[in-house]
């Protein structure tokens, strides 16, 4: 799972930077300050978890485990659900999409728990 995690990290990093620039330059006139802040929150969490995926992939290179695989998958799921729902909510105005956001946040939390457990069981 190292290559897929690195590819996802690169994709999330690339699109996170692009979406951040899009928000700063293209959405500033279109969205209110509240929605712009929501969009930027999605970008921030996406970029943080792109870096986390790189860390998971590098750690898995040296000490592969099912917990690390789970952490990476949960981080990727979190980006899709958390950040993705925030992007869609701000761009479409469909407030019901906010129901998905906490599921993505829970995926992030579960990913960090898996990473913590993987570190705990690491034999160094």
UniProtKB/TrEMBL annotation:
Coiled-coil segments: none
TM annotation in the entry: 43-61, 68-87, 99-122
Domain of life: Bacteria
Cited InterPro entries: DUF423
Any one of the GO CC terms: plasma membrane
Membrane topology recorded in Swiss-Prot or TrEMBL: Multi-pass membrane protein
Alphabetized UniProt keyword annotations: Membrane, Transmembrane, Transmembrane helix
Subcellular location: Membrane
Primary localization class, coarse: membrane
Family: Belongs to the UPF0382 family.
Name this protein carries in UniProt: DUF423 domain-containing protein
Annotated organism of origin: Stutzerimonas zhaodongensis
Organism placement in taxonomy: Bacteria, Pseudomonadati, Pseudomonadota, Gammaproteobacteria, Pseudomonadales
